[in-house]
Amino acid sequence: MAQVQHLENQPQRTCIGCRKKGPRSELLRLVADGSGSSAVVLDERRRMAGRGAWLHPSEKCLALAVKRRAFGRALNGATGTTDVERRITAVTKAVDTPVAAATTVQPESGSEN
């Protein structure tokens, strides 16, 4: 219950892909690269200057954002999403990869003979 209440108190942001609102901590903040290029950069610390856009870290939301051309609208013409795509696919692959965890099976209490 405390976890749910904690998420409700966080600022809400709207994903540029699926257009659903969510807590700021669950979305990635993206900004346009300020060096004159059209690249979209992931703002890991959520502190970079400039207008930001928010995206769920999922391939589905990324695909929707690309299809809708949301990056260019949200970030004043920035369209280079290679950095963002690389990050989201890396996260997705890490989650989908089965981990060979060393699990020890312990007998239930009272069944140790």
Describe what this molecule looks like in 3D:
The protein has helices at 2-8, 59-67, 70-74, 82-96, and strands at 12-14, 21-23, 28-32, 40-42, 52-55. It is of the alpha+beta class and 113 residues long. The chain has a 3-stranded antiparallel beta sheet, covered by helices on one side. The radius of gyration is 19 Å and the shape is globular. The mean pLDDT is 82.
Give the topology.
Layout: H1 2-8, E1 12-14, E2 21-23, E3 28-32, E4 40-42, E5 52-55, H2 59-67, H3 70-74, H4 82-96
Antiparallel strand pairs: 1-2, 3-4, 3-5
- Estimate the mean pLDDT confidence: 82
Largest sheet: 3 strands, antiparallel
- Give the SSE order as H and E letters: HEEEEEHHH
Rg estimate, integer Å: 19 Å
- Report, as a whole number of angstroms, the end-to-end distance: 40 Å
Q: What is the overall silhouette?
A: globular
Strand content: 15-25%
Q: Going across the biggest sheet, name each strand in turn.
A: 4-3-5
Secondary structure class reads: alpha+beta
Number of helical runs? 4
Spans with pLDDT under 50 lasting ≥5 residues? none
Helical content, roughly? 25-40%
Assembly status:
single chain
Q: Kindly state the number of beta strands.
A: 5
